[in-house]
Amino acid sequence: MGDWPLLSLVTFLPLVGAGFILCIRGEVEVVARNSRSVALWTSLVTFLLSLLVWGNFDPVQPGFQLVEKAPWLAGLGITYYMGVDGISLWFVLLSTLLTVVVVIGSWHSVHTRVKEYMIAFLLMDSLMVGVFCALDAILFYLFFEGILIPMYLIIGIWGGPRRIYAAFKFFLYTLLGSVLFLVAILVIYLHTGTTEIPEMTARLHASGLDLSIQKFLWIAMFASFAVKVPMWPFHTWLPDAHVEAPTAGSVLLAGVLLKLGGYGFLRFSLPMLPEASAYYAPFVFTLSIVAIVYTSLVALMQNDMKKLIAYSSVAHMGIVTIGIFTPNALGVEGSIMQMLSHGLVSGALFMVVGVVYDRIHSREIAAYGGLAEAMPVYAFTFMLFMMASVGLPGTSGFIGEILVIVGIFQFSSWVAAFAATGMILGAAYMLWLYRRVIFGALVKESLKGIRDMRFNEVVAFAPLVVLALVMGVYPSLFLDPMHASVDQLLAQIGVETTKLALR
Amino acid sequence: MTFDLTPVLSELILFVGVLALLLVGAFREQDATSRLLAPLAILTLIVAAIVVIAQDKTRALGFDGHFVFDGYAAFLKVLILLGSAGALALAGGFLQDERIDRFEYPLLVLFASLGMSMMVSANSLIALYMSLELQSLSIYVMAAFHRDNLRSTEAGLKYFVLGALASGMLLYGCSLVYGFSGTLQFDALATLWSGADGGAKGLPLGALVGLIFVVSGLAFKMAAVPFHMWTPDVYEGAPSPVTAFMAGAPKVAAVGLLLRVLMGPFHQWVDQWQQIVIVVSIASMALGSFAAIGQSNFKRLMAYSGIANVGYALVGVAAGTAGGINGALVYMAIYLFMTIGTFACILLMRRQGRYVESIADLAGLSRRRPMMALALAIFMFSLAGIPPLAGFIGKLYVFKAAIDAGLIRFAVLGVVISVVGAYYYLRIVKIMYFDEPAEAFDPPTYPAVGSVVAICAVLMLFFVIPVLSSPILGSAQTAATALAK
């Protein structure tokens, strides 16, 4: 595979699949069936190809690997430049895996406009992989904002009753942040004369941008990434979008799209504007703490399962933003682990809600109770992801949170203390949710005939279950390829990396 | 003095072509004449475009320096000729359905194209005025082409009266500049105030006032705020193919002419005209974006969209650099395809033999006609400037130029307004994709319209692929360096 443009293949293969589906004609049923199969096979092959990316990845090397470069836009000196490092590698795999999972998961639950549905998800797959592979800022922006189109359609076409409001809010809110980021890129381009991310970073370090300009640029980038993460108080689009989106849409939204914000901080704000990042770190910590405590409390009071998990996402992403701006390897690696774990776990939790929603068509917590009797497999799956979300040792959620908290403790014990309350409150709302939905007696008439998980649902959950446990008991598998890249990132922001016991 | 006609080769082709077709039309008194002439007119336009592409792009003067042919003119001529050809291809079916397929229509398009083609080559104030009037007079008649229709005649009259006022302003501006400089020629004007001690002399106030009048006149032609008032009414009232034509090539020509004036004779007075262009640009972007939100008629919405888009093109003009010219040219090129594609979709909106124009008529289009909905969605997302569609590349170029020229606050304002604009484009996508289907449209009867939609949609969708974009981006670059010298 030496000379193959592997990353381009992974990025654009789903588009080929989408093109195929577009050409399918015939009876509605036949079209639906064929669309599902094409989408499944395309996403599966894409996932396998992305495993090859992992296989060809050299964990010792800090820089970008599997690099592809070609001239692109004439006149602006913008190149088509792709590559992965230890940070983006995992997000590529996460994106391709979650696409396979949602295609399987929505096998029986989507009946209207299956063809368009599958096209939209393959389009998402392509754009998500692209955004993590792009090493040119304009190319990055292209994918970053391009994702809005399929997501807008997914929420608007297959969403719940308030889907139109949610779709518009999602689109315009994130677009407003993104355009400011574009201005920031163009200003940096003016200063450095390049849009290649590694080169931009290097030249910014060489030239030493004025702190006042750095602050403006940092705020412009923050506007974009903070909305994506989302950080309090820019999170208001998220509960709406999550609640109204179809299950698969919520999974990708929580699993991958929120990570774009964190990834953006790691790729742009932190290495390119280190002084401004240090200057604004307390600001980020404050917002993150508010997010953790406030949204956890809000989550406690929700009646809607999806909304509860949406708010828990905001709280978990608060831990991520604390970790990113912690100037040591523990914090940064912890934040990446937390993002990966959250991608799997909250994605899975949205699917958990989706499973019962498909059967009962209600997301109200009060509509359920005692499901353990009728749905034992479901109850087990739910429990596992609930525990992982709470951060029980042995599950993926624990690793990220503990790394971040240990990392931030070396920096500020107060921030660590507040961040830790998130774990407690998280346990409270998740356990309470679980008790109300799963335990108790199965008395409600509507729940009497409820079926346990179907085969396709079990298959969809299986990889997530395995990964949540593997990440919990053997985190080195995921952390090892990160070290070199994270060390380089920290060197760029001027932090001496020391070998720590936790490695 | 030798009389070299090579710089005006494409104009000669158009001119001879239109006269020949006029004779054919005058002597064949049959109903089907228009059906014969339209393809011939398209052929003439395409031949002229090919001649321009093949021509040597080094700067050459004609008619004692009143006319110039260079890479810049060539780029715009190709756009104008292709845009006119596309708009003419759309017209046939509509004119037949509405029983107004008179043979004059293709001829008027050719005359207007000839005018526009001369506009972008104008190298003196007199050539500027003459070419602009040739274009305008043809379009006044076209706007009122549906002469039994009240709205169409009203549109024609309104456009004519206001257009005459704008022409008056333009002419007054020209005379002021002439009076204070003693020359009509752009080349002479450019050197007049830039001699060894010229910079110190400064621009005479009268010439500056003249310049403002000229800019105002051109702003009217390109429908920039505050000279936009005519646009929604005329766009709505004029027959749809005429609107498709008006929204495309003439705007490109007007922006081209504005750049020619500002970057040629008045280039060193950037600081004098920059603030005017910035204000006009912001006002156009803002008004176009906010006013479009409330529209229910698609053609009216596109009128406001056109106002906003001219505002974005003016972002590039305001930069006053080679990069800015490049940005404005790229933007207008992409805009031309998006607009023609959108109007082609509007021409497909036919229900029980009658053309409909309301946005609500698009409800649920994605169920009934998925490919048309897809194409229209591509145009809408592209107009909104969402990557990876072509509209984003256009916006990228103009804002890049503005930032490079140090106009960062202006650029921030521009991108924020573009989010407002995104709202109403999204609304159309919402109506097509999220709403319950309305009554189906008639099946398309004219393959030309469908193919225009397909070509434009494919171009907008795959514009990021270098194979498609590099011819346009590359020649825009050449054009910009030709003008900026």
Automatic annotation (TrEMBL), chain A:
The keyword Chaperone does not apply. Residues 134-422 form the NADH:quinone oxidoreductase/Mrp antiporter transmembrane domain. GO terms for molecular function: NADH dehydrogenase (quinone) (non-electrogenic) activity. It is found in: Endomembrane system; Membrane. It is a multi-pass membrane protein. Keywords: Membrane, Oxidoreductase, Transmembrane, Transmembrane helix. Pfam families: Proton_antipo_M. The chain crosses the membrane at residues 6-26, 38-57, 87-107, 114-132, 138-158, 170-190, 216-234, 246-266, 278-301, 308-330, 336-357, 377-408, 414-434, 455-474. Its EC number is 1.6.5.9. Belongs to the complex I subunit 4 family. This is NADH-quinone oxidoreductase subunit M. It comes from Benzoatithermus flavus.
From TrEMBL, chain B:
The keyword NAD applies. Keywords: Cell membrane, Membrane, NAD, Quinone, Translocase, Transmembrane, Transmembrane helix, Transport, Ubiquinone. Pfam families: Proton_antipo_M (PF00361). It is an enzyme of class 7 (translocase). Its EC number is 7.1.1.-. The keyword Translocase applies. NDH-1 is composed of 14 different subunits. Subunits NuoA, H, J, K, L, M, N constitute the membrane sector of the complex. NCBIfam families: NDH_I_N, PRK05777.1-3. This is NADH-quinone oxidoreductase subunit N.
